[in-house]
Prior knowledge:
Layout: H1 2-14, H2 30-61, E1 72-73, H3 75-82, H4 86-98, E2 102-105, E3 108-111, H5 114-125, H6 127-143, E4 146-153, E5 156-163, E6 179-180, H7 185-191, H8 196-209, H9 216-229, E7 232-235, E8 242-250, E9 256-265, H10 266-269, H11 274-295
Helix pairs in contact: 3-4, 6-11
Amino acid sequence: MAQKGRRKALQEEVGPAASPADQDDGDDGPRSTASADALDGTAAQSSSRAASESSLSRLLGTLGLFSTDSPSLTVEEIATRLGVPKSTAYRYIQELSKVGLLVRLDRSITLGPRIIELDRCIRESDPVIRAAAPPMRELAEQTGLDVFLSKLYGHSIITVHTEFNDPLPHLRYGRGRPVPVPRGASAKALVAFLPAARLRRLHQELASESPDTPPWEAFYEEAQRIRREGFCRTSGELNAGKTGVSAPIFGRGRLVVASVTALGSDARLALFDAEAIAELVRRTAHMISVRLSADGHL
């Protein structure tokens, strides 16, 4: 009797045993329904987030429509190039105009004054530019060459800072003008030092966009040669009659963050010993890398 009483008390404490029908055997039931609802909610959140990110990308992508060839655009042109309705294009323009990134001039839209403010902020506060400017200036004064600082941006290299000796440089590619990745010393010296997986992925993306992209074997072999030598030298690939010598700049963990390039006419570069000018550029890149590490930002 005592044992039976204890068994009854235990049952009352833990509740009745679940019947086979109540147990979760993998069929739809209360727990399965809750799990399905949770999954549906997660999927809905992911879908909403993806749609939001896509909308934000298109909104910011509006700025990328403007160039020296297209300094002003109409609402219709913006809508067509983005592939969105005019009402959506109007909304994008309104949002970007509120913060000064775009300006409406009658029927035309142009980039706004906030762009200039952001450019000044980059020039004065970018840690790579801060670290690079003094050594670049020293190299320019020492050699009489123009010196460029370049960064990787998507599938392009963009020059973010220059130290000119030529008061009127006639360059096809200069500060702020994207350079195709497979061309020019500044691009090749930077890309060659990317991690192998990223280098392969970049080549695949380039090959899908342009039939002129060299095969992977040639692309990789050139990158390996540049890595061994520690610099890249090209002539006439971007600017006719100009030769550039570039070396990579590294942040923490030996991650490549930029390249520095000494550029001059073919005739002027011919006056320098090839190994001597390469060593000067490599040394400048090393000085910038050391200054970056000391800065603590990269």
